[in-house]
Amino acid sequence: MPESPTPAETAAQPVRRMPRAQRREQILAAATRAVARNGFTGTGLPDIAAEAGITHVILYRHFASKADLYRAVLERAYTRLGDAVGTEKLDGTSISALLRAAAADPDAFRLLFRHAVREPEFRDVIDMVRSYSTMIAQRYLTDAVPAGPWQDWAAQVIPTFILDAVIAWLDAGQPDLDDAAERINRAARALIEVAGGELVQKD
Protein backbone atom coordinates (compact mmCIF):
# COMPACT_ATOMS: atom_id res chain seq x y z
CA MET A 1 0.00 0.00 0.00
CA PRO A 2 1.56 3.36 -0.99
CA GLU A 3 2.54 5.70 1.80
CA SER A 4 0.75 9.02 2.23
CA PRO A 5 2.81 12.09 1.24
CA THR A 6 4.51 13.97 4.05
CA PRO A 7 3.39 17.55 4.87
CA ALA A 8 6.56 18.85 3.19
CA GLU A 9 5.81 16.87 0.04
CA THR A 10 2.20 18.10 0.07
CA ALA A 11 3.30 21.72 0.45
CA ALA A 12 5.74 21.33 -2.41
CA GLN A 13 3.03 20.18 -4.81
CA PRO A 14 1.90 22.94 -7.18
CA VAL A 15 -1.53 24.44 -6.55
CA ARG A 16 -3.94 23.59 -9.35
CA ARG A 17 -4.67 26.65 -11.47
CA MET A 18 -8.28 27.77 -11.58
CA PRO A 19 -10.07 30.40 -13.63
CA ARG A 20 -9.85 33.70 -11.78
CA ALA A 21 -13.56 33.93 -11.02
CA GLN A 22 -13.64 30.38 -9.66
CA ARG A 23 -10.59 31.01 -7.47
CA ARG A 24 -12.14 34.20 -6.12
CA GLU A 25 -15.31 32.34 -5.21
CA GLN A 26 -13.24 29.65 -3.47
CA ILE A 27 -11.48 32.31 -1.39
CA LEU A 28 -14.72 34.09 -0.49
CA ALA A 29 -16.35 30.84 0.62
CA ALA A 30 -13.30 29.93 2.72
CA ALA A 31 -13.19 33.41 4.28
CA THR A 32 -16.89 33.16 5.14
CA ARG A 33 -16.31 29.91 7.01
CA ALA A 34 -13.15 31.08 8.77
CA VAL A 35 -14.52 34.45 9.93
CA ALA A 36 -17.82 32.94 11.04
CA ARG A 37 -15.83 30.50 13.17
CA ASN A 38 -13.28 32.88 14.73
CA GLY A 39 -14.52 36.43 14.11
CA PHE A 40 -12.99 39.15 11.97
CA THR A 41 -10.36 40.16 14.54
CA GLY A 42 -9.43 36.55 15.31
CA THR A 43 -8.98 35.54 11.67
CA GLY A 44 -5.84 36.39 9.72
CA LEU A 45 -5.11 36.07 6.04
CA PRO A 46 -2.94 32.97 6.73
CA ASP A 47 -5.99 31.34 8.34
CA ILE A 48 -8.08 32.10 5.27
CA ALA A 49 -5.38 30.87 2.90
CA ALA A 50 -5.17 27.62 4.88
CA GLU A 51 -8.97 27.28 4.85
CA ALA A 52 -8.97 27.72 1.08
CA GLY A 53 -5.98 25.39 0.59
CA ILE A 54 -3.96 28.01 -1.28
CA THR A 55 -0.75 29.99 -0.76
CA HIS A 56 -0.51 33.57 0.53
CA VAL A 57 0.72 34.62 -2.89
CA ILE A 58 -2.46 33.44 -4.57
CA LEU A 59 -4.60 35.11 -1.90
CA TYR A 60 -2.86 38.46 -2.39
CA ARG A 61 -3.42 38.26 -6.14
CA HIS A 62 -7.13 38.63 -5.42
CA PHE A 63 -7.31 40.77 -2.27
CA ALA A 64 -4.91 43.44 -1.06
CA SER A 65 -5.93 43.24 2.61
CA LYS A 66 -8.13 41.42 5.08
CA ALA A 67 -10.52 44.39 5.10
CA ASP A 68 -10.89 44.23 1.31
CA LEU A 69 -11.56 40.52 1.53
CA TYR A 70 -14.13 40.83 4.32
CA ARG A 71 -15.97 43.60 2.50
CA ALA A 72 -16.16 41.34 -0.55
CA VAL A 73 -17.48 38.53 1.69
CA LEU A 74 -20.28 40.78 2.97
CA GLU A 75 -21.15 42.02 -0.50
CA ARG A 76 -21.25 38.43 -1.78
CA ALA A 77 -23.55 37.41 1.08
CA TYR A 78 -25.93 40.29 0.40
CA THR A 79 -25.98 39.71 -3.36
CA ARG A 80 -26.66 35.99 -2.98
CA LEU A 81 -29.41 36.71 -0.46
CA GLY A 82 -31.02 39.22 -2.80
CA ASP A 83 -30.89 36.73 -5.66
CA ALA A 84 -32.61 34.11 -3.50
CA VAL A 85 -35.26 36.28 -1.86
CA GLY A 86 -35.75 39.21 -4.25
CA THR A 87 -35.06 42.87 -3.60
CA GLU A 88 -38.15 44.62 -4.96
CA LYS A 89 -41.05 43.60 -2.74
CA LEU A 90 -42.28 41.42 0.10
CA ASP A 91 -44.98 38.80 -0.43
CA GLY A 92 -46.26 35.60 1.09
CA THR A 93 -43.24 33.61 -0.05
CA SER A 94 -40.53 36.03 1.12
CA ILE A 95 -39.97 34.62 4.60
CA SER A 96 -39.83 31.02 3.34
CA ALA A 97 -37.29 32.11 0.74
CA LEU A 98 -35.29 33.94 3.40
CA LEU A 99 -35.20 30.87 5.63
CA ARG A 100 -34.08 28.66 2.74
CA ALA A 101 -31.33 31.12 1.82
CA ALA A 102 -30.15 31.28 5.44
CA ALA A 103 -30.15 27.48 5.71
CA ALA A 104 -28.17 27.19 2.47
CA ASP A 105 -25.35 29.37 3.85
CA PRO A 106 -25.79 30.00 7.58
CA ASP A 107 -22.23 31.28 8.01
CA ALA A 108 -22.80 34.06 5.46
CA PHE A 109 -26.17 34.95 6.96
CA ARG A 110 -24.74 35.24 10.46
CA LEU A 111 -21.79 37.28 9.23
CA LEU A 112 -24.07 39.75 7.49
CA PHE A 113 -26.69 40.19 10.19
CA ARG A 114 -24.95 39.32 13.45
CA HIS A 115 -21.17 39.78 13.23
CA ALA A 116 -20.61 42.62 10.78
CA VAL A 117 -22.70 45.04 12.83
CA ARG A 118 -20.02 44.80 15.55
CA GLU A 119 -17.29 45.97 13.18
CA PRO A 120 -17.30 49.79 12.86
CA GLU A 121 -15.09 49.59 9.77
CA PHE A 122 -17.93 47.92 7.85
CA ARG A 123 -20.80 49.95 9.27
CA ASP A 124 -21.53 51.43 5.84
CA VAL A 125 -22.37 47.99 4.46
CA ILE A 126 -24.76 47.24 7.30
CA ASP A 127 -26.35 50.70 7.10
CA MET A 128 -26.93 50.14 3.39
CA VAL A 129 -28.56 46.76 4.02
CA ARG A 130 -30.79 48.17 6.76
CA SER A 131 -31.76 51.20 4.69
CA TYR A 132 -32.78 49.03 1.76
CA SER A 133 -34.69 46.62 4.01
CA THR A 134 -36.57 49.52 5.56
CA MET A 135 -37.44 50.91 2.12
CA ILE A 136 -38.84 47.55 0.95
CA ALA A 137 -40.83 47.16 4.18
CA GLN A 138 -42.25 50.68 3.89
CA ARG A 139 -43.39 49.93 0.34
CA TYR A 140 -45.12 46.78 1.62
CA LEU A 141 -46.80 48.67 4.49
CA THR A 142 -48.34 51.40 2.33
CA ASP A 143 -51.78 49.76 2.17
CA ALA A 144 -51.77 48.42 5.73
CA VAL A 145 -50.51 51.32 7.85
CA PRO A 146 -51.25 55.03 7.28
CA ALA A 147 -48.25 57.15 6.37
CA GLY A 148 -46.69 58.71 9.43
CA PRO A 149 -44.60 57.83 12.46
CA TRP A 150 -46.16 54.39 13.06
CA GLN A 151 -45.51 53.36 9.47
CA ASP A 152 -41.91 54.56 9.88
CA TRP A 153 -41.67 52.59 13.13
CA ALA A 154 -43.02 49.40 11.57
CA ALA A 155 -40.74 49.73 8.53
CA GLN A 156 -37.73 49.59 10.84
CA VAL A 157 -39.00 47.11 13.43
CA ILE A 158 -40.37 44.41 11.11
CA PRO A 159 -37.18 43.75 9.07
CA THR A 160 -35.15 43.71 12.28
CA PHE A 161 -37.56 41.24 13.89
CA ILE A 162 -37.61 38.95 10.85
CA LEU A 163 -33.82 38.82 10.52
CA ASP A 164 -33.36 38.19 14.26
CA ALA A 165 -36.03 35.49 14.09
CA VAL A 166 -34.22 33.75 11.24
CA ILE A 167 -30.90 33.83 13.13
CA ALA A 168 -32.63 32.43 16.22
CA TRP A 169 -34.11 29.70 14.00
CA LEU A 170 -30.63 28.82 12.73
CA ASP A 171 -29.30 28.75 16.31
CA ALA A 172 -32.18 26.48 17.36
CA GLY A 173 -31.13 23.85 14.82
CA GLN A 174 -33.45 24.87 11.95
CA PRO A 175 -36.70 23.21 13.12
CA ASP A 176 -39.38 22.60 10.46
CA LEU A 177 -38.89 25.36 7.88
CA ASP A 178 -42.50 25.68 6.75
CA ASP A 179 -43.71 25.89 10.35
CA ALA A 180 -41.04 28.47 11.14
CA ALA A 181 -42.08 30.58 8.14
CA GLU A 182 -45.71 30.54 9.26
CA ARG A 183 -44.80 31.49 12.84
CA ILE A 184 -42.60 34.37 11.71
CA ASN A 185 -45.30 35.51 9.26
CA ARG A 186 -47.91 35.54 12.01
CA ALA A 187 -45.67 37.55 14.31
CA ALA A 188 -44.89 40.05 11.52
CA ARG A 189 -48.61 40.43 10.76
CA ALA A 190 -49.23 41.12 14.44
CA LEU A 191 -46.65 43.91 14.37
CA ILE A 192 -48.37 45.38 11.31
CA GLU A 193 -51.73 45.28 13.11
CA VAL A 194 -50.21 47.03 16.12
CA ALA A 195 -48.71 49.71 13.90
CA GLY A 196 -51.95 50.24 11.99
CA GLY A 197 -54.33 50.31 14.96
CA GLU A 198 -54.99 52.75 17.75
CA LEU A 199 -53.34 52.14 21.09
CA VAL A 200 -55.83 51.91 23.93
CA GLN A 201 -54.50 53.23 27.19
CA LYS A 202 -55.80 51.65 30.40
CA ASP A 203 -56.49 53.68 33.49
List keywords for this structure.
203 residues; mainly alpha; 10 helices; elongated
Q: Largest sheet at a glance?
A: none
State the secondary-structure class: mainly alpha
Number of helices: 10
User: Helix-strand pattern, N to C?
Assistant: HHHHHHHHHH
> What is the radius of gyration computed over CA atoms, rounded to a whole number of angstroms?
21 Å
Strand content: under 5%
Through-space gap between termini: 85 Å
Total beta strand runs: 0
Instruction: Report the uncertain regions.
Output: 7-12, 199-203
What sort of overall outline do the alpha carbons produce when their principal axes are compared?
elongated
The overall pLDDT, averaged over residues, is 86
How much helicity do the residues have? over 70%
Describe the structure.
There is one protein chain. With 203 residues, the chain is an all-alpha fold. Helices cover 70% and strands 0% of the residues. The chain contains ten helices and no strands. The chain has helices spanning 7-12, 20-38, 45-52, 56-62, 66-85, 94-104, 106-115, 123-141, 149-171, 177-196. The longest helix has 23 residues, at 149-171.
